[in-house]
Amino acid sequence: MKALRTTLAALFVFALAQAGCRGRQAAQNTNAAPSDANGAQQQQPAVQLPEGDARTLFEFGLDAYRHDRDEVAVAAFRRAVELDPGLAEGYYRLGLALNVTKQDEESDKAFEQCVKAYEKRTKKDPKDSDSYYLLGICQERLGKYDDAVKSLKEAVKNSPAENDDKYFELAAAHYKLAQYDESVRALRKTLEINPDNFPAQELLEQAKSGAQRVEEFRKRQQEQMRKPTNSNSNSNANAGNANAGANTNSAPRANSNAAVPPS
């Protein structure tokens, strides 16, 4: 009888243990991401964004971007420009966030929209230095360095106060075009305004090296132009042969100094 009670108790404990395992497994299945009919895991739910206008979404995206929540930032900036298609800085920030998340094609599209939006602003207000500045940056991002130089020159010209960031971006655009002398001048101005602009210090050394390489190349070209070419050497040799023939009473040849071998 005692053995029977022991056996029944053991079976009861085993049953409880099995029930507990099934309960934990059910909880895990409940918390897991849902799967489709083929067993493939479905995508997580969409990012939860706050209610509000474009500016609210934009500020939310900025905060997410600063805290490295890049996917949230992308979603917030997308929603912001949907609510306000004229929100130029929204396209700029969206382009940056997409670039960080390695969505290069989508990033370029955002920067293209950024360019269009800031072009509209600068047409309305040709003295809007900040709009020219961000327009130039978006153009740089798209590799449109000639356009960027024009925009950034306007940003510098119309700035109510000297701004080292604007001069630095102008210098960077010049540098991308291998316009090293112009880049050096803009970088020196950058450091005159802010001596602690370390990116400008670094780029200045690179621009100086580039300008030196260009100058050395020009000097080599000039030296090559001063040297007699093979054609001139042949011409001089032919002239000597023609004169020698004349001294031996040979028939005179027309145009004896031309670079043509004597017949």
Structure summary, number of beta strands: 0
The average pLDDT is 79
Fraction in helix: over 70%
* Rg: 37 Å
Low-confidence stretches: 1-42, 242-263
> What does the overall shape look like?
elongated
Query: Quick one: biggest sheet?
Result: none
Q: Give the count of helical stretches.
A: 11
**Secondary-structure content class:** mainly alpha
User: Roughly how many Å apart are the termini?
Assistant: 136 Å
| Beta-strand residue fraction | under 5%
Order of helices and strands: HHHHHHHHHHH
Short synopsis of the structure:
Helix content is 73%, strand content 0%.
Walk me through the structure.
By secondary structure, this protein is mainly alpha-helical. Helix content is 73%, strand content 0%. The protein is built from 11 helices and no strands. The protein has helices at 2-31, 54-66, 70-83, 88-100, 104-124, 129-141, 145-158, 164-176, 180-193, 198-226, 230-247. Helix 2 (54-66) runs antiparallel to helix 3 (70-83). It is elongated. It starts with a helix and ends in a 16-residue tail after the last helix. Mean pLDDT is 79; it is low at 1-42 and 242-263.
Describe the secondary structure blueprint for this structure.
Blueprint: H1 2-31, H2 54-66, H3 70-83, H4 88-100, H5 104-124, H6 129-141, H7 145-158, H8 164-176, H9 180-193, H10 198-226, H11 230-247
